Amino acid sequence: xxxxxxxxxxxxxxxxxxxxxxxxxxxxxxxxxxxxxxxxxxxxxxxxxxxxxxxxxxxxxxxxxxxxxxxxxxxxxxxxxxxxxxxxxxxxxxxxxxxxxxxxxxxxxxxxxxxxxxxxxxxxxxxxxxxxxxxxxxxxxxxxxxxxxxxxxxxxxxxxxxxxxxxxxxxxxxxxxxxxxxxxxxxxxxxxxxxxxxxxxxxxxxxxxxxxxxxxxxxxxxxxxxxxxxxxxxxxxxxxxxxxxxxxxxxxxxxxxxxxxxxxxxxxxxx
Length: 271
Ligand code: DGL
Fold this sequence. Notes:
Shape: globular
Mean pLDDT: 96
Distance between the termini: 26 Å
Radius of gyration: 18 Å
Bound molecules: D-glutamic acid
């Protein structure tokens, strides 16, 4: 592994920036190359075959620019295409977000009742249910697709009465179950910016977890195993590419990233 190369990260849009943000905190010396496929968002309502094709094209763009490791910072793409990507690039470590998210949920739950919210596609192919049961076979998993959260987050609508009404419509069925969950996994990288509203609806006693921290830990472990850490002392650089409007990407992307992103730092690419 060439330690000087960047880590490649992709998502259907801005959601994966919530993972990139934690990667930067945890691995400050690394360069990061992020691709947001905003022209084709959402992935979460599309068929598995389409998502797998889009994921392979996004990954190919990053590989073409040379990366040392690939993070699939999209649960929908991780669920649909992780194995395909590993087969396409057998020498490249490829890390998804579903398993790390499942690990975080199993560690957080005390009563064994775990709720998962994600896109339609991730819920339909039972990716989280399988990943959680692999770690905790006794866990009881309830799941709900919350597709509109993706559009709300991409619109920058994170709180207020409209967002709360949507959150209530999606989340209340999870709360009225007699086996009330004590942990809710945000199984979509677009959801963390909405976590305050989601937490308000879920109420006290329900821990909200996402995959960013445990994904970053997995990346760190993979780099150590391959001797691939960038040994520089200063901060690494983050490069952004998008398949649609760079101005919008930098404006909305700043919300997900938690810091300002300049339009001139975002490059438009075609897949
Ligand atoms: N951010 C993606 C995920 O984690 C989904 C958003 C979309 O539907 O494109 O699943």
